[in-house]
Each structure stands twice: as structure tokens, then as C-alpha cells.
Specification:
It is a single chain. 31% of the residues lie in helices and 30% in strands. By secondary structure, the chain is α+β, with helices and mostly antiparallel strands. The protein has three domains: 111 residues, no CATH class; 100 residues, no CATH class; 54 residues, no CATH class. The strands form two sheets. Strands 1, 2, 3, 4, 5, 6, 7, 14, 15 and 16 form a ten-stranded mixed β-sheet that branches. A hairpin with a 4-residue loop joins strand 2 and strand 3. The protein starts with 11 loop residues before the first strand and ends in an 8-residue tail after the last helix.
Length: 307
């Protein structure tokens, strides 16, 4: 039998959440779709979502004293917390979000027993990466794609954990504030420089996590530097417009040096390497090598490369 397949676009939104994996807590954006599916490091239907929440895999709370990791930003100990939800109310919150997306609550997808067994047999866990976008015009439904990350922001006397998104056309949206903020790339660049956007602090700091509650976080256990996040932000805009990122340019320079291992190309590699956001350099290689060979070439050139 000939096999074919099709792709279907399903729209949705995100809300904040926390994954508890092996006793460690990770802040995530929970992807919620209008067909009732939710992605919390695995795409699940409403029944699967309830199981994930009841098993504490997906949770709206982090116990005081535990560390919270925020991808690409840092790790912090929770010193105090006032959480908005418990397990039951968090599930209801997600279901209500689906109903906002799909008021008639129709065409809600349920994973069949056959599908579940098939996925398990194939050892497949679906976790699709969403595409961020905003609607430029409802006429012909013109959209602009975007991408972004989590970062801290000062807003009206309070500190927030926000999601900062940049779009192809240079528009910037900031989510997880009391009201979404829209600005242009140039204005956001200023906020990186004047301290409005920040990644580190030198004392315990109250942070509002819209949709989850308010916490007091310790000084960072580790954190990305604001200059490096700014580099990442600009790279996202370049990538959205089809340009090579600093990481891709660095990887090209690495292969060029391997083909022509002379000082000229080594210095070119150094230049490209230092442009890569520091917290992203680990992605230059694979999961095992990370950026070790880049460091060897640049800082330990007499050391032999292991093949």
C-alpha cells in the first residue's frame, strides 16, 4: 500500500508552566492548541494532560528551596512563592484557555488506544516546535513569523519574567506583562542597554510570573549575560529573514579552518566564535563535543585533535 501524509496547521497560544523532571524544575511555555492538544515536552490530549499534571510532570508550583531553571536565561533558587494554581485549578485553566481558542469546543482531538500503542512500539514521542507569528492583516490572513526567549523586565515598578519575541518585519512583542507591549526592534535594543531588560541581579528579587504567581528568586546560580542575550536577539531576527546566524557563520569558519589550518583562518574562526552568544556556543558541536574542539583550536593549538 502506498503511503502518503499531509500537514495541518493548528493555531494556539502559550501559557507559563513548570516541568518537574527527576526532581528538577524547568520553566517552560506550555503550548496549547485549539484542537485540545497540549505540548509539555510531549504532545498530549486532555486525558494525557490530566495524567501529566496528576503525576507532577507538569506543575504550576515550585516548592520553596528548590531551584528553577529557565532555558537560555539561568537558574535560581525559589526563596518565597505565592502560586496562583493547584493541580486541579491549573488543569481547569488550560481547559478554559482551549475554550477561548475554540468557543464551540468542537473537533477536540483524542489520541486513540491504537495511536498510543503505535507510538510506544515505534518509541516516538511527539513534541512539535511551534511557529510564532502575528497577524499583520486579516485580509488574506497575512502573517509575520517570529521567535523569542524568556528574559526579565522592569515594568511600572515591578519585575517580570516575560517572553520577548521579534518578528520578520522588525516588530517586537513582549508577552506575560499585565498588557502585551508592542514596539520596534530599535526600541527593544535600547531596553537591553538601559537595564529595562535584564538577566542577573545581586540580591534576592521578587519576580512576577504572569499566569503562575509571584516568587522571590535568589541571586542567579548561573545566568546568561545581558550582552549575550542581545546578540541572540539580533541573531533571531537575522535568521527569520534568511540570513546566517553567528553560530552558523562560526561553524562555517570552523570547517574552513579544518580544510586550511593556517593562522589566517584560525583568527577568522576566533572572530566568528566570539560573536556567538556565550550560552549558545555549546551547540556548535554535538551533544558530546559541544564547542570543545573550537576551544582547542583557539586556546590550545598545540593540543592534538582526537578523531
Amino acid at each position: 500500500m502506498k503511503k502518503i501524509r499531509r500537514s495541518k496547521i493548528v493555531e494556539g497560544t502559550t501559557i507559563p508552566g513548570v516541568i518537574c523532571n527527576g526532581g528538577q524544575y524547568f520553566y517552560i511555555d506550555v503550548d496549547i492548541y485549539d484542537d485540545g492538544m497540549t505540548n509539555c515536552w510531549e504532545l498530549v490530549d486532555l486525558k494525557g494532560l490530566k495524567n501529566k499534571i496528576n503525576s507532577n510532570w507538569l506543575t504550576p508550583v515550585v516548592p520553596v528551596g528548590q531551584n528553577l531553571s529557565i532555558h537560555g536565561l539561568g537558574a535560581f533558587q525559589v526563596k518565597e512563592a505565592n502560586w496562583r494554581f493547584n493541580q486541579e485549578s491549573y488543569y481547569e485553566h488550560i481547559e478554559q484557555t482551549i475554550r477561548l481558542l475554540n468557543p464551540e469546543f468542537v473537533n477536540i482531538y483524542e489520541i486513540s488506544e491504537r495511536e498510543q500503542k503505535q507510538w510506544e512500539a515505534r518509541r516516538v514521542a511527539h513534541s512539535p516546535r511551534p511557529t510564532d507569528f502575528y497577524v499583520k492583516s486579516e485580509l488574506f490572513y497575512q502573517t509575520a513569523e517570529g521567535d523569542g526567549f524568556n528574559i526579565f523586565m522592569k515594568n511600572e515598578g515591578a519585575n517580570y519574567l516575560v517572553h520577548l519575541n521579534v518578528y520578520q518585519d522588525g516588530q517586537v512583542m513582549i508577552y506575560n506583562l499585565p498588557q502585551d507591549v508592542q514596539c520596534h526592534l530599535d526600541e527593544a535594543n535600547v531596553w537591553f542597554q538601559d537595564g529595562t531588560l535584564f538577566t542577573t541581579f545581586d540580591r534576592e528579587l521578587p519576580i512576577r510570573m504572569a499566569g503562575l504567581g509571584e516568587v522571590t528568586l535568589s541571586e542567579p546560580l548561573y545566568a546568561a549575560e545581558i550582552e549575550e542575550k542581545h546578540k541572540e536577539f539580533m541573531d533571531l531576527h537575522k535568521k527569520l529573514n534568511g540570513e546566517k546566524t553567528a553560530l552558523e557563520e562560526c561553524r562555517d569558519a570552523y570547517y574552513l579552518y579544518l580544510e586550511n589550518p593556517i593562522e589566517f583562518y584560525r583568527e577568522k574562526l576566533r572572530e566568528k566564535y566570539e560573536r556567538v552568544p556565550e550560552h549558545e556556543r555549546m551547540y556548535l558541536g554535538d551533544m558530546d563535543t559541544k564547542d570543545w574542539d573550537y576551544q582547542r583550536i583557539l586556546y590550545r593549538p598545540d593540543e592534538k585533535r582526537e578523531v
